[in-house]
Design goal:
- The chain is globular, with a radius of gyration of 19 Å.
- Strand 1 and strand 2 form a beta hairpin.
- About 50% of the residues are buried.
- The N terminus and C terminus are likely disordered.
- Helix 2 runs antiparallel to helix 3, helix 5 crosses helix 7 and helix 11 runs antiparallel to helix 12.
- It is mostly helical and about 300 residues long.
- It has a two-stranded antiparallel sheet.
- It is built from twelve helices and two strands, in the order ααααααααααααββ.
């Protein structure tokens, strides 16, 4: 599933910035940036974990049925087990904790704190022998500086919400890196299995926590539909493609762009304001993304250099 640059870099994906990679990046950048705002609307009248359970289970079942009709093989018991692990870490620990935090934090704050994901990804990647280059570390540092600048103002979260937002990227990035070494189903069937198992797990957590269901508003239902189709079916599949075909720092660089999209939506539709320092911070964040995503030279075993992100 993973392509390789050379034996010298056999432990890291070697995909170039192909049209498929660029398209996947664009989807994850824009769509997941908007999901923070969508989650805030959805949990206005829906229980957080129960809402996520519906989102991922429906999306997973639809994708699973479509792939089976297209002739994709049924996942083995071992693959289902790996999908449970990834679904728990990414969807339960990652998305679930963010959604719980948004009860006491704005969508903009949630997106900004999650921007530490590339740093965690680079650290976790070292557990499996992958190295993060100097320019990637510089890009991570610049991006975090932009997040710090953006956070100077009136955007705050409660201590509990802040803790959940720190734990969320830890779960997400660890699960993302581990998924590359687990026997997951090939291609989109991996995404389908993870969403099905993750959705079931989230429903179980919702029941254990005693979440109450009321009558949802039309706005929450529309937000849930958007999160299910675009946030799950489309963007999650695009992200798992990036995890398998790009370096960790690039795959998680969405965390720098998502705050930009989240803040713009908050300003445009949520009545939030952003001063001059905030707009400067957005520019710094984008600079960090460019440093992380810019192709670098990797020596090949035959002598010439090849380009890989």
């Amino acid at each position: 599933m993973l392509s390789r640059v050379s034996s010298a870099a056999a432990s890291a994906p070697a995909a170039r910035l192909t049209p498929a990679v660029l398209l996947a990046l664009g989807i994850v950048y824009v769509v997941w940036g908007s999901t923070y705002f969508g989650i805030k609307i959805a949990i206005g009248s829906l229980p957080p974990l129960g809402m996520l359970g519906i989102r991922f289970l429906v999306a997973g079942v639809i994708l699973f049925a479509f792939l089976r009709l297209r002739g994709a093989p049924m996942p083995t018991a071992r693959q289902w087990g790996a999908s449970v692990v990834v679904g728990l870490l990414l969807l339960g620990g990652g998305t679930g904790l963010v959604t719980l935090a948004e009860r006491d934090a704005s969508s903009s704050v949630a997106a900004m704190v999650i921007a530490v994901s590339p740093l965690f990804a680079a650290l976790f990647a070292r557990l499996w022998g992958e190295r993060t280059g100097g320019r990637e570390w510089l890009g991570i540092g610049v991006g975090l500086l932009g997040i710090a600048l953006l956070n100077i103002g009136e955007l705050h979260a409660t201590p509990l919400a802040a803790l959940l937002l720190i734990l969320a990227p830890l779960c997400w990035t660890f699960g993302s890196q581990w998924s590359r070494h687990l026997p997951l189903p090939a291609g989109l069937m991996g995404s389908a299995a993870e969403m099905v198992t993750g959705g079931v797990l989230l429903f179980g957590l919702s029941f254990i926590m005693g979440e109450k269901w009321g009558t949802p508003t039309s706005a929450s239902l529309w937000a849930l539909a958007y999160l299910t189709v675009f946030g799950s079916l489309v963007a999650y599949s695009a992200y798992m493609y990036l995890v398998a075909h790009t370096r960790p720092a690039l795959a998680t660089s969405y965390a720098y762009v998502n705050p930009v999209v989240a803040v713009l939506l908050g300003v445009g539709f949520g009545g939030e304001t952003l001063g001059t320092l905030g707009w400067v911070a957005l520019g710094v964040i984008l600079m960090g993304v460019m440093l992380v995503a810019w192709p670098k030279k990797v020596p090949s075993p035959t002598g010439p250099e090849v380009t890989a992100p």
